[in-house]
Design brief:
Radius of gyration: 23 Å
Strand content: 15-25%
Oligomer: single chain
Order of helices and strands: HEEEHEHEHEEEEH
Structural class: alpha+beta
Number of strands: 9
Strand order of the largest sheet: 2-1-5-4-3-8-9
Distance between the termini: 70 Å
Largest sheet: 7 strands, mixed
Length: about 220
């Protein structure tokens, strides 16, 4: 290969590299941005809502029925756990307990933990679990109920997922795969944000966004 061809080849490679870099930059600036997860840095007051939580009727650990009407007019944070979980659930619940302590001066804020294993998580089981984390029954609800109702609520209402890791798994030690996100819901039952409970930055944004709703 002569010197002229080598120079043309090198020039072509430079142009290709420049074009790739420019394309990447434009995609980063102009392409679709993530709406969920810790990378979403947009403040709450500039986001659209993520839809409405549909009505539901479930059972609280005290045995009383709870529906969406009980939560209207309050700001609330939802999460999804099961009491036999030894993976993410204890960490999620510990973070919820922190939020309970930090927001004790905000009586219009509620915490709501939905069991993704309602067949095993009876009101009595949920009561013992809640007591382990010092859950204030007047501010922090633990809900169980028919599996179909909870599945519908998680998938169609919150647009999240929950399923046994092994299809058809029903044994006591079968793991259930479920979202680790906290969901912020406003007084009109509109979903306002999703926050990864394992991400410290996401949890800081949750705290900021709670304040924006409380004082908005």
């Amino acid at each position: 290969m002569n010197a002229v061809k080598i120079r043309f080849l090198m020039l072509g490679m430079c142009v290709l590299a420049l074009g790739t870099a420019l394309g990447t930059t434009l995609w980063t600036k102009l392409g679709p941005q993530p709406r969920y997860g810790s990378q979403d840095q947009r403040p709450l007051e500039h986001t659209d809502s993520y839809g409405l939580v549909p009505d539901f009727t479930l059972v609280e650990r005290n045995g009383k029925e709870i529906n969406l009407a009980h939560l209207r007019g309050t700001i609330w944070i939802a999460d999804f756990i099961y009491t036999s979980c030894n993976d993410t659930c204890p960490l999620q619940t510990a973070e919820m307990a922190k939020l309970q302590g930090e927001t004790k001066d905000r009586p219009d804020l509620r915490l709501v933990s939905f069991s993704v294993d309602p067949d095993k998580d009876t009101p009595g089981v949920l009561t013992r679990y809640a007591d382990r984390f010092g859950a204030d029954a007047s501010r922090w609800l633990f809900l169980t109920g028919p599996k179909g109702e909870i599945t519908r609520l998680i998938r169609e209402g919150f647009r999240l997922s929950a399923a046994f890791a092994v299809p058809g798994g029903e044994k006591a030690d079968d793991m259930i795969l479920h979202s680790t996100r906290f969901v912020l819901v406003d007084k009109q039952a509109r979903i306002r944000g999703y926050y990864d409970s394992r991400d410290a930055e996401a949890l800081q944004r949750l705290r900021r966004d709670i304040s924006a709703l409380v004082h908005g």
